[in-house]
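I am still learning, so can you show me any protein sequence you like together with the matching structure tokens, please?
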Amino acid sequence: MLHNHNSPHANQIGVLYRHGDVLIRRIASLPIGTQKREGAALAEGELTGHSHRLQEANAVQLWVQGHHLFLEVKESNATLVHEEHQAIELPQGVYRVWRQREYRPDAYVEVMD
């Protein structure tokens, strides 16, 4: 289910948010073994220099486990911003973050801004 900010389901586990080439899914809790990561940027734009970032850096905590990225929104909500996309509000909770990938005959590659 993709999230519509007017939806009463925003706080349910499994809700998906898409922000350009970033996909975010609400999860029940952080996996065991995650480690804190500094900053509030979910993805840096390799081509444009723009980033998908949380506007309220003090309201969020990023976590990593290997190559997997997780986001914890610690306040009632946080705003995800990017110069080329409409801002979206993420309610308090824990999320798994993915970079969108595209298929090419020889490999799957991350989408670049």
